[in-house]
Amino acid sequence: MPGLQRLASLMQGALVGAFLLALGGAFIPGAVGHASGVACVLVLIGAPILRVSWLTTSWARTGDRRFATMGVLLLLVLTTGAVIALVR
Amino acid sequence: MNPVQLAVAALITAAVGALGGLGGAILLVPVLVLSGLSAREAAPLGLISVAAGSLAAAPHQLRMHLVNHRLGVSTEIVGSAAALVGALASGVIGQSLLAVMLGVVAILAALVGAGRKGIRNLPDPLLTVGDVGEHAGSLSGVYQLEQHEFVEYRARRVPVGLLGMAFAGFVAGLSGVSGGFIRTPTTSEVMHVPVKVAAATTTFTVGVTSAMALLIYEAQGRIVVSDAALVAAAALVGGSIGVRLQALLPPPRVRRVLSVVLVVIGVLLIVRNR
Q1: Integer Cα distance of B149 and A63 in angstroms
Q2: pLDDT, tens digit, 9 for 90 and up, residues B48-68
Q3: Any chain A CB within 8 A of the CB of B89?
Q4: Residue B55 and residue A14: Cβ atoms within 8 Å?
Q5: Helix (H) or strand (E) holding B142
Q6: Please, are residues B28 and B178 in contact by the beta-carbon 8 Å criterion?
């Protein structure tokens, strides 16, 4: 399953990036450190959403329509949740 | 709690969370609250720990084909939707009563897991390393038990399992923890998915749940960036350690470790909220 290996490499990149940004956020003072910390949080939020999107696309490409639909449904639930929470 | 203590707590809880597929929040949040932080301040840090632990575990678990993504995505739809309902309903149920309920559930899950002996899914000599992974179009797959032992599994009692995920999502929405301590035993003991696959799949799904919650906390300005960055750095290291420990330990031992941790969590929750 070479596709999952690509996803693993992508997650490895996000992991290294998040770690470096986290170190910056924890130890660099001032605006640069703050920006680094915020970027780290955004990577932590974005990585699982990217993973679900990647899987959904991959399942759709390989004809696994049932689970591609599940992936789309999950992304819809997540989007709905975020919108409801932000509006409230 | 000083920064060094915060980093050590985040590292240890993320490691245990990744090892047992619990998510670190259920361990880190009580520790932070006991150290004097308010639950409102502790919850975002707990979720940072869960998200970081999930990301730290991802590369290794993906390369080992441990996660059943189809199972994770299917159950997470129910879990996330129930978490939304739980979040909207929070305030109706008292937080102390909820915490005691969570404690009882954790202890029951521990007893169910500890009461089972041996390995439910036995190795199939016809399977090879080429078969490892999840099967397209179904909630089944093959995982590697030992170097030359491969086990086929299929998720069973899916409707009951989905009810468990809905309950986990609901309490996660109510309480602000990830619900991994309910999801992993549900996947393993109700759906008969091998404990390592169950733990890895839960580690994936709690990352998704925490991402949505963190987006909300970030928009509400509830994340203290310097503390969050410190917790993230430590939890990324802890998660990497936990997932490697999980690979080294045999499933019955993982189940025993999981049971002990669940009992500790359950007792902590009940004692703190009597």
Answers
A1: 30
A2: 998 999 999 999 999 989 999
A3: no
A4: yes
A5: strand B140-146
A6: no
